[in-house]
Sequence to fold (182 residues):
Amino acid sequence: MTAAERLTLWLAQLRDTGRGVLVARGVIALAGALAILIPTVASWDQLDLVLILAIPLLIATVVAPDSLAGVMFLLTVTIGWVIRAPAEISWGLVVTAIALVVVHLATAFAAQLPSYVRVERRALRRWVVPGGIAVLLAPVVAVAAALVQGADVPGSLLVTVGALVLATITIWFAAGQRLGRG
Fold:
């Protein structure tokens, strides 16, 4: 296949892209931009390497959500955050965490769909409910972690991990998942 044929095929697929897929990819772009922008303008010194790597990875994730670029984007922003972010929990960290959760969920949704598919409301509802719960639980877990961190409670790491496990279980069951195969 020549380059002209590939470009023609890509433009035809882009023209036939469904609204649900475009919305999911728009959400990926917006949440990913927030996840890059907030640490960049924050008070801590963000690594320049994060910007150099994250921006092309975000573009690749929007274009091909079923590729490895999404995972690499999440890892790049998270590692940059872990290396340079302050120890205390701030609203910037919470919003960055929420943005990363939204990128993850929107990428998982968009990755399973061909670009030409028409998405029904029922399918969107199946993703919006657990996604909404995940977004709402992120600040709750952050506040709980901040309270435990400031109180010097023995075993605070276990409390934080327990809160994350509880949040994961809540999202799992809210998505309608079951423990068995049936």
